Automatic annotation (TrEMBL):
Domain of life: Bacteria
Membrane association type: Peripheral membrane protein
Provenance organism: Nonomuraea purpurea
Family, as annotated: Belongs to the ABC transporter superfamily.
SUPFAM superfamilies linked: P-loop containing nucleoside triphosphate hydrolases
Keywords: Amino-acid transport, ATP-binding, Cell membrane, Membrane, Nucleotide-binding, Transport
Record's protein name: Amino acid ABC transporter ATP-binding protein
Length: 242
């Protein structure tokens, strides 16, 4: 059974269709990458999954529950999803430890000690054990983004949504964030990510989806999409990014 099913999703902004009937299934442990030119609708699709946008037509089902049903509580859905954006969005006035423990304590009602124990474990796992007491402005961009990912993981999400998480990093810092994504994949985390890093996309994706003007034009395993795309527009896009 699929973990997430996107079925015929449409989204319009000011009469302009940004998503045009998107169908996508994500199986447990699957890593799905969304690629496509800027403005093709990748971020909007992730935002619809996280209920940051309402869909205009179609449905999204998570773990068998239709989350686009207006009666569904948004917070109950967001508890099950981790989302990380291009900008790090850490709380600047809180230490790394407090950033990571805040949501588990408030949302999952974890006791302070338990939340901190879990946070220390995650920080150690991702090479940030010595940064627990640091404030975000003392960390490099790569470290901040790793903390943002850890903060999302601390909620033990069913699904991680990663939107261009390496785009605002200097090239030498991209590597350390990609390493985190690799490790998440190895640990079996289900993920949907958007990226301009075609190398990592090819390496870690089980499925690559090419979006063009809000249409999911092509979907398949990376070996197929990258080497033998069916659609001329996919070929053109890939030529422009390689
Ligand atoms: P991508 O992530 O692939 O670059 P986006 O999903 O951010 O694309 O954007 C798709 C289109 O939707 C763009 O034309 C963008 O300008 C438009 N768009 C996104 N969010 C909004 C919004 N809140 N209001 C109006 N237009 C939006
Ligand atoms: Mg985007």
């Amino acid at each position: 059974m699929s973990l997430l099913t996107i079925d015929g999703v449409w989204k319009h902004f000011h009469g302009h269709s940004v998503l045009r009937g998107i169908d996508l299934e994500v199986r447990p442990h699957e890593v799905v990458s969304l690629i496509g030119a800027s403005g093709s609708g990748k971020s909007t699709l992730l935002r619809c999954v996280n209920l940051l946008e309402t869909v205009d037509d179609g449905t999204i089902t998570l773990d068998g529950q239709e989350i686009t049903d207006p009666r569904v509580k948004v917070d109950d859905v967001r508890k099950r999803l981790g989302i990380v954006f291009q900008a790090f969005n850490l709380f600047p006035h809180m230490t790394v430890l407090d950033n990571v423990t805040l949501a588990p304590r408030q949302v999952h009602r974890l006791a302070k000690g338990e939340a901190e124990e879990q946070a220390h474990e995650l920080l150690a796992r991702f090479g940030l054990a010595d940064k627990a007491r640091a404030y975000p402005d003392r960390l490099s961009g790569g470290q901040q983004q790793r903390v943002a990912i850890i903060r999302a993981l601390a909620m033990r999400p069913r699904l991680m949504l990663l939107d261009e998480v390496t785009s605002s990093l200097d090239p030498e810092l991209v590597v350390e964030v990609l390493q985190v994504i690799r490790e998440l994949k190895e640990s079996g985390m289900t993920m949907i990510l958007t990226t301009h890093e075609m190398g990592i996309c090819r390496e870690i994706s089980d499925t690559v989806c090419f979006l063009d003007g809000g249409v999911l034009l092509e979907k398949g395993p990376p070996e197929k999409v990258f080497t033998d795309p069916e659609n001329a527009r996919t070929r053109k896009f890939l030529r422009s990014v390689f």
